[in-house]
Amino acid sequence: PKSVGEFMVTGTNSRRRFYDPDLDQVNYRTGNGLGYHVWAERQDRHLYMNFLAEGRTADYRADVGFTPRVDTNYLGSFIKYETEKQPDAMIVFKQIWNETNIRYDMKGRSQYFIVNTRGMLAFQRQTFVGLNYQRGYERVFEHEFGRNRTATRLGAFSGDDPERSATFNAMQAFVESTPFKQLYVNLFMDYTAGGMDYDLGAGPRFPRVSAAALQDPNSGFDPGPGNILTLDLTVRYQPTAALQTQLSYHRLRLNRLDTGRTAFDDHIFSSRTTYQFTRNTFARLRLDYSTLNFNLRPQFVLGWTPNPGTAIYVGYNDDINYNGFNPFDGRFEPGTRGNGRSFFIKASYLFKKSF
Questions:
Q1: SS3 for 143?
Q2: Has residue 333 got a pLDDT over 90?
Q3: Phi-psi bin for 45: left (phi > 0), alpha (psi -120 to 50), beta?
């Protein structure tokens, strides 16, 4: 029971349009892909460790879920040591862990590497304070952004280099606490020096700010390092067993090192309130506002879940801009404008059969 292992292999067969970076064209063809996942872990009283390997070939496609990158392999390890818990002491326990991750493509070329080390102290009232240090390396290739260069043709990247890389260092700090039963607070801060900006722009308010783009907005991509600031704050309050409300704030900003310009700066404010009428019936209101496009997205849902696998949800979604940009044509629109509105009903039922 202390050791667990699992593995999965997935094959995909697709008849669709695939982009060919060598020919710089989209071909309608059959693509066969392979994905794999191998996991092993061991749990002891004070020491825990796991190891993960997974990958996807270039033609791997999945319509369900999220595939961030293809033509990639991942190897990772996580090792954690925790002292004996002392419930009555000021410091209940101490913890230190390390994770090491590496990514490389099917040709063996490195894509990403990071070593992350964290120390944490656990205090009374479920209060945790920790510090992280990360050092890593990221590498991107021209064919991931568009066409490959030839002797007679420019590639997707500007300049003479068909690849870009960045070495980064990051410091992180966090505080998590439940000072009393009804209140939970979590604060996370991260500053990364040298994180990669992919030079894709971030909408009308934040066009590309690489050196190549400032000279010519239509130039090839010019990924490069920048400094990244991340802030996360979550406050959750539950005055009664039936009512819970949560407020969150997230900020993400990246400044390019070569030009000193801001690639993007986004403030996201979220609120989520849930009321549990009965054990199986609830109502939830959620609001999300982003300053990247001055966009507000409210959602209201009524749910009934009488048993696992059986559920009915009735809801409403809206998408509103205030002094923002039209998501379809990019034009500035003063005042309040609606982008889309939907009402939905979702139902599920689990059929079970034993053999």
A1: helix
A2: no
A3: alpha
Rounded CA separation 326/322 (Å): 10
Give the pair of three-digit tokens for residue 169: 């260092």
Q: How does pLDDT run across 99-136, given as a tens digit for each residue?
A: 999 999 999 999 999 999 999 999 999 999 999 999 99
Judged against a pLDDT cut of 90, whether residue 15 lies above it is answered with yes
Q: Is 21 exposed, middle or buried (0-12, 13-18, 19+ CB in 10 A)?
A: middle
CB 338: neighbour CB atoms within 10 A?
Answer: 9
- The torsion angles phi and psi of 119, rounded to 5 degrees, stand at -120, 140
Backbone angles phi, psi at 107, to 5 degrees: -95, 0
Single-letter residue type at 59: D
Give the span between the Cα atoms of 312 and 300, in whole angstroms: 14
Please return the burial class of 354, using the count of CB atoms within 10 Å of its CB with bins 0-12, 13-18 and 19+.
exposed
Give the residue from 5, 9, 11, 29 showing the smallest Cα distance to 19: 29
Calculate the dihedral angle through the C-alpha atoms of 80, 86, 87, 93, rounding to the nearest 10 degrees. -30
- The full DSSP string for 333-345 is EEEEEEEEEEEEE
Residues with Cβ < 8 Å from 149, sequence gap 6 or more?
142, 155, 157, 162
Phi, psi of 212 (to 5 degrees): -65, -40
pLDDT at 325: 84
Q: Give the separation between CA 138 and CA 157, rounded to whole angstroms.
A: 16
Q: Which residues of 303-319 are buried (b: 16+ CB within 10 A; e: fewer)?
A: beeeeeeebebebeeeb
